[in-house]
Amino acid sequence: MARLIYTALTSLDGYVADEQGKFDWAEPDEEVHGFVNALERPTGTFLLGRRMYEVLSFWENPPKLDEEPPVIREFAAIWRAADKIVYSRTLKTASTARTRIEREFDPEAVRRMIASTARDLSIGGPELAALAIEAHLVDEIHLLLNPVIVGGGKRSLPANTRVKLELLSERRFRSGVVHVQYQVEN
Prior knowledge:
With 186 residues, the chain is an alpha/beta fold. The chain has helices spanning 30-40, 50-56, 70-81, 107-116, 126-134; strands at residues 4-11, 15-17, 43-49, 83-87, 99-102, 120-124, 140-146, 154-155, 165-172, 178-184. It is globular, with a radius of gyration of 16 Å.
């Protein structure tokens, strides 16, 4: 059975984007990007909210990809090889291959998907991840804590939700980013 994994690049105070919607402070260096590639490589399907999909759809066809470092080319290949399900009430069509749009997040349909596939699923976007966490669907949470405090914005984890976690691993990077991996105790 596959796992549903939530990974977020977040500020130390728990935001994926600041109050202006910017997240340039979380752009990974080559070391962190390579680590993220390793995390995402086993992913068979990305479950995404509309805004996260719009950000990540860049990876479908990045300009001058052949001139980019190997770590960038690898992530583009990981993205293109995976199926994508976008949960959106407003998106009319998908701009990427291997993508389908769902109008509503159905926890039971996701539960069946997890049970019926061998490859892990990755959930992206804090609002969508919050729904999955609240429905007890998420198996692991990976946070890449960036050495910055942004003071507000889009929270990486849901408010008013209590979830017990078990620390599985941690890693420090030269840039000051710290990765923590938690198993969700359902």
